[in-house]
């Protein structure tokens, strides 16, 4: 089981992912001209909405959103930072895409392993892993009246699914390392596929009109 201990590497990486996704959500809210409260709310639900939904589904309650103050605090601080410095932040669009890919990889891999740790079947663990990675973005898009990105472009959910499947398949071979290698491998697949999709503008087939 992957455990999150105080000041552990996992916690630091997890909070980094929270900051990245919160900044992404806050940027979308700023573009829609939300006020500061609205920007903070969108930042928090983008960063923590997917993980909270996963935790409720697998019975890991209360979710980290409610049980560990560091997670919502990190999300709020990131959102407020974007609110005040959004002109400079918007110029870092490519860097934000890379960071978003890293956050997607991290949340998908850790979400998949958490599902396995709570006794889910391999298929169900893949589902909650993907949900961990893309759920917050779906909530963000719905609240800002956008078509969710996973339904329209960039191999977003496909990248997450590929990494989740690899993490599940590799887990039985990785028992001696506490599932770290399988989680890392799955995360690397998500990250690589996402970056390649951005670079080469991959997308799933669309209907001809």
Automatic annotation (TrEMBL):
Q: What are the UniProt keywords, alphabetically?
A: Cell membrane, Membrane, Transmembrane, Transmembrane helix
Q: Which Pfam families match?
A: Gly_transporter (PF03458)
Provide the transmembrane region boundaries: 6-30, 37-57, 69-85, 92-110, 122-143, 155-173, 179-198
Q: Which domain of life is it from?
A: Bacteria
| Bilayer disposition of the protein | Multi-pass membrane protein
Subcellular location field: Cell membrane
Q: Which PANTHER family match?
A: INNER MEMBRANE PROTEIN, UPF0126 INNER MEMBRANE PROTEIN YADS-RELATED
What the record says about family reads:
Belongs to the UPF0126 family.
Q: Which residues form a coiled coil?
A: none
Tell me where in this chain the Glycine transporter domain is found: 12-86, 98-170
Name of protein: Trimeric intracellular cation channel family protein
Species of provenance: Salininema proteolyticum
């Amino acid at each position: 089981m992957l455990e999150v201990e105080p000041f552990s590497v996992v916690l630091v990486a997890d909070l980094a992912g929270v900051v990245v996704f919160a900044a992404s959500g806050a940027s979308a809210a700023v573009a829609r001209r939300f006020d500061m409260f609205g920007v903070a709310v969108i930042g928090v639900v983008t960063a923590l909405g997917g993980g909270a939904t996963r935790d409720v589904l697998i019975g890991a309650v209360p979710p980290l959103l409610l049980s560990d103050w560091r997670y919502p605090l990190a999300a709020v601080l990131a959102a407020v930072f974007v609110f005040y410095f959004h002109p400079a932040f918007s110029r870092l669009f490519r860097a934000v895409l890379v960071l978003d890919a890293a956050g997607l990889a991290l949340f998908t891999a850790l979400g998949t392993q958490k599902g396995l740790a709570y006794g889910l079947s391999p298929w169900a663990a893949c589902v909650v892993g993907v949900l961990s990675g893309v759920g917050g973005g779906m909530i963000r898009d719905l609240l800002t009246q956008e078509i969710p990105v996973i339904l329209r472009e960039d191999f977003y959910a496909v990248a997450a699914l590929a990494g989740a499947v690899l993490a599940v398949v590799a887990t039985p071979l990785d028992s001696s390392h506490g599932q770290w290698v399988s989680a890392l491998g799955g995360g690397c697949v998500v990250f690589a596929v996402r970056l390649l999709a951005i670079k080469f503008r991959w997308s799933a087939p669309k209907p001809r009109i």
